[in-house]
Design a protein that fits this description.
Blueprint: E1 2-9, E2 18-21, E3 26-30, H1 37-47, E4 77-85, E5 97-105, E6 110-114, E7 117-119, H2 121-128, E8 140-142, H3 145-149, H4 155-165, H5 168-502, H6 508-515, E9 523-526, H7 527-530, H8 538-545, E10 552-554, H9 557-570, E11 577-579, E12 599-602, H10 603-606, H11 614-621, E13 624-627, H12 630-634, E14 643-646, E15 650-653, E16 656-659, H13 672-946, H14 960-977, H15 984-1046, E17 1050-1056, E18 1065-1071, H16 1085-1102, E19 1107-1111, H17 1119-1132, E20 1137-1141, H18 1145-1149, E21 1153-1161, E22 1164-1171
Helix pairs in contact: 4-15, 5-13, 5-14, 5-15, 15-16, 16-17
Length: 1173
């Protein structure tokens, strides 16, 4: 698998579409600095999904779009596509060629493509994961990364190792699983909190449910009494309605008889009102006519004034037009005189303009001829200059090569001398190293024996420590269980203590007595307190006791009477008291009971009491048998004569069956104090157990601490011995390396001396030949300089002549333009004068027409004024007559108005009498409406409250006052109960279901948490194993390649710091030949480069990357090391495609394909390619 093609369009300096065809093997990209070579590397990184614009050498991602250059506009989009040839099937796709594309717009929007189909960045990452082709893989190495790979932190180094070992996918899986684990743990905490919350809520709702049932019973009683009260009230209201309805009928009869008399007077009044209205209408008509005449008179007067004003204005316009006509005639005469002068001036300018134009054309011809001659000479001069510069450049290169050859000869001779001296010294040093080797090999054997003994002691103590830690874990588990049990018991204790202190479930009076024992000193307790019952039958016993369970127990009647008097005085409420000395003897049924599966036993046998309460127990439960099933018990003849109660709350007493299963959830009145004492005992026991476990834990922890000291001591000793062994190994490896290095160095020095002698001979021959060529080129350069000087002299003369001609040409052009301007100006003035004369002629005809119109208009105005004045005289006489008639009509209308007023006074008197009658009728009707409203209000209130109607007939034993007192008492009881949750039953069921669901969820989450932990451990195990194996393989390869690159020396890799390989740092130890072991920072730039390259190729040997880009990593290397570098590069090129950005000729020689990057236009890169055979 390799990169076969890269297409760039608009990416950085590649403005146009450029295609790079890569082949297998080595491809070199060359070119001068700044031409855009590294932009090709950036394009490959970017298309593979690189997101950090800093790595792409940009300030922001949009900067990678071509930003324009001289004469080249900037682009709004860039696109790069990369074709990968999947010939080895490493990618999980069925295609042989996969094309990856990426497009970026200036808006910041980015698109990804796979085989030209839109896809996500995630799809590209997943395609190349663990293949070595990702944007963050180790496939791109720049010169600046040499320091990063060899840095002390080593993050980049670790990333390369992880990519090679293929554990990235395991790390992703682990991160995903950890997120799920954290989420599950968070959910578990949340569910536990919810369970605690819901449990508390269920307890609270249970208490609320009991109050709700009491509240419901009171509401039923209240409903009955309110309906009875409403019946009494509505019956009373209906009794009051009958006499009122009778009086209303009488008043309606009187009202009808009075209306007949009033109607006669009203008829006469209507007749007079009709006459009065007609008189008013006629009067209004006359007034309207008079008003119309007055309006017409005012209109005529206004028109006469306007027409007279228009006449005066017409006369003024006539005078103005006569004056304007006279002035226009004078101006027209003046302009005609000017026209003659303009024509003369135009005719005189024409011959001057023609003469000036001929002079300009003649000078233009002379200038063009001289200018062409000048251009030819400049062209010849440029050709000579180019040849001269080319010759001078060749001469400079040859002189440089001549000087270089001299330097090389001196360096080779000096080097040969130095090497001869060093070879002698190295032979002496080699003998010393052989002695040291034998000495340290003996020391290594002794250290290995000590290490084996120490390991045996360490294993024994580690096993004992593990046992102690396991014991500690078990104690912790038991301690947590005990702590949870204590928490549960504390909650129960608080609950029962609250029940006892608040006397929950007892009547108000009993609660008052129990909470004030300092006042009620003679009480022994309640029935529920003195009985001790097993939990399994407590509810059945409580149902059998009924309200007796709430009774207060005293010694005698005297104590009972004292308590009752105190309770009445305190208004405590209802209480029931049982004096022990007044209990009747209970007649037991003299009949033996055969035991069977259904019978649990006699109640008196199952309930435990103090001897002094034995009579109380016999009285309450003497003849009661507790059974499992009532149906079975009813058919059991042995139980005849006994009262029976089953576990479901059904009670058979005196032949009656009472089902109290609805009260099955008892209030727990019986044995509360005993339960409280039992819980206290359990808490005490659990506390003792907790303290015991705490002491055991302290002892185990002390033992663990002591054992850890031993383990740590053996570990420290083992580390010291291991370090000693490592030091010995290092010394032995160093000595072996020195031995190998010295041997190889001596052989290498001999080879270099031989090569130096050959180089000196070849450079001496080269120097002689260059000296002859330099002398020859110097003579040729002098000839070109003479020709150029002669041509420059001739060029100056022609330039001066051409400039003079150009100045004369410009002067002639200016004269011609000035004369043309004068003629154009006169022609414009002539045209303007003609236009003005024409306007005056047009205006004259308009003035004549306007004068004629004014005379005609003045004549019409005089005629209109005469007619209007005559009409005005006629209208004035008509107005006088109309005013006299209007006065007579007004007097007749006033008389009619007086008669109507008198009749209306009579009608008002009669209406007053009728209103008093209506007032009484209205009062009666209001009383009826009020009573109806009260009946309706009571009925509606009852219907709204209880959705029932008040019955028409009903037997009520109590008076209205008694019912009101009863209702008030019930309402007070409801108020004492306090606020009630009306949906408590539903909420109680829902919360119980929710508690069950949450408990199941908690169990599921605990199981899921365990599974996730197992998964994380399995992932770590697999990843650790893969990383460890890969690291060991890379370490072996690095040792061999380091020796190959440096021709000796020693290099190794180690895991340092954290004992976990996945978290440990990767250390590099490099010891070039002839040097002591030193840190990476002390290596030279060339040594660092070779070390980093050796590490890179070591990784490739374990997991060959499909491609590798090396960006000027060979820059610090000299020629000798470059040959080593290219030799290794060729050996790896069979498995890996190499793309090398370089300036080194030796690296170029090793390439199969060569691409040159140039920049003919500033800012725009261009590709040139060549295939090297």
């Amino acid at each position: 698998m390799y990169i076969s093609e890269l297409t760039m369009h608009g990416f950085k300096s590649f403005a146009k579409k450029d295609v790079v065809h890569f082949g297998e093997g080595i491809t070199a990209i060359v070119g001068p600095n700044g031409c855009g070579k590294t932009n090709i590397v950036d394009a490959i990184r970017w298309v593979l999904g690189e997101q950090k614009y800093s790595i792409l050498r940009s300030g922001k991602m949009e900067d990678i779009i071509f930003n324009g250059a001289k004469n080249v506009k900037p682009l709004s989009v860039c696109e790069v596509s990369l074709t990968v040839h999947n010939n080895k099937g490493k990618l999980p796709l069925e295609y042989n060629d996969i094309e990856i594309g990426r497009r970026l717009y200036r808006s910041g929007e980015s698109e990804y493509f796979m085989n030209r189909t839109p896809c996500r960045l995630k799809d590209i990452h997943e395609l190349f994961i663990d293949t070595g082709m990702g944007s963050d893989a180790y496939s791109v190495i720049e010169l600046k990364m040499i320091e990063q790979i060899l840095s002390e932190t080593g993050d980049d180094r670790r990333r390369m190792f992880e990519e090679a070992s293929g554990i990235n996918k395991y790390k992703m899986q682990k991160r995903s699983t950890l997120k799920k684990f954290e989420s599950t743990r968070s959910d578990l905490h949340r569910v536990n909190d919810l369970i605690l919350e819901v449990e508390a809520k269920v307890k609270s709702l249970s208490l609320q449910l009991k109050r709700f049932e009491r509240h419901s019973k009171l509401l039923d009683d209240l409903r009955t009494k309110e309906i009875e009260l409403a019946f009494i009230q509505t019956h009373a209201y209906k009794s009051d309605l009958h006499p009122l309805n009778t009086r209303i009928a009488e008043l309606n009869h009187l009202r009808d008889s009075n209306q007949t008399e009033e109607s006669e007077v009203e008829k006469k009044l209507i007749s007079f009102q009709s006459v009065f209205k007609s008189q008013q209408d006629e009067l209004e008509r006359y007034r309207k006519q008079l008003n119309d005449y007055n309006n017409s008179r005012e209109s005529l007067q206004s028109d006469i004034i306007i027409w007279k004003e228009q006449s005066r204005s017409a006369q003024a316009s006539f005078d103005r037009l006569l004056l304007e006509e006279k002035k226009n005639n004078q101006k027209s005469k003046q302009l005609n005189n000017h026209l003659v002068d303009y024509r003369k001036s135009i005719n005189s300018l024409k011959p001057k303009i023609d003469s000036c134009l001929n002079q300009f054309k003649q000078k233009q011809i002379e200038f063009n001829s001289k200018d062409d001659q000048l251009k030819n000479i400049i062209s010849d001069l440029d050709i000579m200059q180019d040849k001269r510069w080319e010759l001078q450049k060749k001469l400079s290169d040859k002189k440089s090569m001549y000087d270089t050859a001299g330097v090389i000869i001196n360096e080779k001779r000096n080097n040969t001398l130095e090497l001869n001296n060093k070879v002698s010294e190295k032979r002496i040093e080699l003998d010393s190293i052989l002695k040291d080797l034998r000495k340290y090999q003996l020391k290594k054997k002794a250290t290995l024996k000590k290490i084996d003994k120490n390991k045996i002691n360490l294993n024994i103590n580690s096993d004992e420590l593990n046992k102690l830690e396991k014991e500690k874990y078990n104690i912790d588990v038991n301690k947590n269980k005990t702590l949870s049990s204590l928490d549960a018991l504390d909650s129960k204790h608080a609950f029962y203590e609250e029940l006892v202190n608040a006397a929950e479930g007892y009547p108000k009076g009993v609660r008052d007595v129990l909470s004030n024992k300092n006042i009620f000193k003679d009480i022994l307790g309640t029935v529920g307190d003195v009985l001790n019952v097993d939990q399994s039958i407590s509810s059945s016993i409580e149902i059998a006791l009924g309200d007796y369970a709430k009774c207060i127990v005293v010694k005698n009647k005297k104590d009972a009477i004292n308590i009752l008097e105190i309770a009445r005085n305190r208004n405590s409420g209802r209480i029931m008291i049982i004096p022990l000395d007044s209990l009747p003897l209970v007649k037991y049924v003299n009949k033996s009971i055969k035991s069977n599966k259904n019978i649990i036993g006699r109640a008196v046998d199952l309930v435990k009491v103090s001897p002094k309460y034995k009579s109380l127990l016999d009285f309450l439960l003497g003849n009661i048998i507790i059974v499992k099933d009532m149906k079975v018990a009813m058919s059991d003849k042995n139980l005849k004569g006994y009262d029976v109660i089953d576990q479901d709350g059904a009670l058979l007493i005196k032949g009656m069956i009472i089902d109290r299963s609805s009260n099955k959830k008892s209030l727990g009145l019986i044995g509360r104090k005993e339960k409280l004492s039992s819980i206290k005992e359990k808490i005490k026991t659990e506390n003792l157990l907790f303290h015991k476990l705490d002491k055991q834990l302290i002892k185990v922890c002390e033992a663990i601490t002591n054992k850890e000291k031993y383990v740590k001591k053996y570990q420290v000793d083992l580390m010291g011995l291991s370090k000693d062994l490592m030091d010995v190994n290092d010394l032995l490896d160093g000595l072996e390396m020195q031995k190998s290095t010295l041997s190889e160095s001596i052989a290498g020095s001999d080879a270099i001396i031989s090569q130096n002698q050959k180089d000196v001979k070849s450079q001496t021959i080269l120097k002689k030949s260059l000296k002859i060529e330099i002398l020859k080129d110097d003579r040729g350069l002098e000839k070109y300089l003479k020709k150029i000087m002669k041509t420059n002299s001739e060029l100056s003369k022609i330039q001066s002549t051409r400039d003079n001609l150009h100045q004369h040409l410009q002067d002639a052009r200016i004269n011609h333009l000035n004369l043309e301007g004068q003629r154009e100006n006169i022609i414009f003035q002539e045209s303007t004068a003609k236009d003005s004369i024409q306007e005056f002629i047009s205006r004259k005809s308009e003035i004549i027409r306007e004068i004629k119109d004014i005379k005609e208009s003045e004549k019409n105005l005089k005629r209109l004024i005469s007619v209007a004045e005559k009409k005005l005289t006629d209208i004035n006489s008509v107005v006088s007559k109309q005013e006299s008639v209007l006065s007579l009509k007004q007097e007749a209308t006033n008389d009619s108005y007086v008669i109507i007023e008198e009749m209306q006074a009579q009608i008002r008197s009669e209406q007053k009498n009728r209103e008093s009658l209506m007032e009484e009728l209205k009062n009666c009707e209001l009383k009826v409406a009020d009573l109806d409203q009260r009946v309706n209000f009571v009925s509606e209130r009852i219907f709204d409250s209880y959705s029932v109607k008040i019955p028409n007939e009903m037997i009520v034993d109590q008076t209205e006052n008694e019912l009101n007192i009863g209702i008030e008492r019930i309402e007070k009881s409801i108020e004492n109960i306090g606020p009630i949750n009306m949906v408590v039953k539903v909420e109680h069921e829902e919360e119980n279901e929710r508690l069950l669901m949450l408990t199941e969820q908690r169990d599921d989450l605990i199981k899921a948490e365990k599974n996730l932990l197992d998964t994380i451990q399995e992932i770590d195990k697999v990843a650790r194993e893969k990383f460890q194996n890969t690291f060991e393989d890379i370490g072996k390869n690095f040792e061999k390649l380091f020796t190959m690159f440096f021709e000796g020396g020693r290099g190794s890799l180690r895991l340092e710091g954290d004992p976990d390989p996945l978290e440990a740092n990767i250390g590099i130890h490099a010891q070039p030949p002839g040097k002591r072991n030193q840190s990476l920072r002390q290596l030279s730039a060339g040594e660092k480069a070779l070390t980093a390259i050796a590490l890179l190729f070591s990784i490739y040997q374990v997991k060959p990357s499909p491609y590798c880009i090396l960006d000027e990593v060979d820059a610090p290397l000299d020629d000798v090391n470059i040959r080593k570098f290219t030799r290794v590069l060729n050996s790896f090129s069979n498995d890996t495609q190499f793309i090398v950005v370089t300036h080194n000729k030796l690296t170029m020689e090793s390439a199969n394909y060569l691409y040159g990057v140039t920049m003919e236009k500033k800012g725009v890169s261009q590709l040139v390619s060549a295939k090297l055979d």
